[in-house]
């Protein structure tokens, strides 16, 4: 994005922000029954304080937006795959563990256990 595009975008955002703030303030005054005659006028110092506050807030928002754009541009570095497992050196082949052979008729056959899920109250 060129510098002129950024400035144009900022001026558009400033225009939108100004319009939104004026609308919200007018709505707030109407909600509380405050007319133009009842509003007190601000002094030059008060106006300057508000301007400084808004500029400071705008600067903070710009910094946050730049920070979030940088974070989005950073790509996650993929992990390196684990190294291949070392193969065992050839050695004596062991036989599987001995099993118990069932003698027919000796005892009742074992039942399969079922897992029961309970909902906690």
TrEMBL record:
This protein's name: Spore coat protein
Region (Disordered): 72-121
Protein origin, superkingdom: Bacteria
Positions with biased composition (Basic residues): 109-121
Organism: Tumebacillus algifaecis
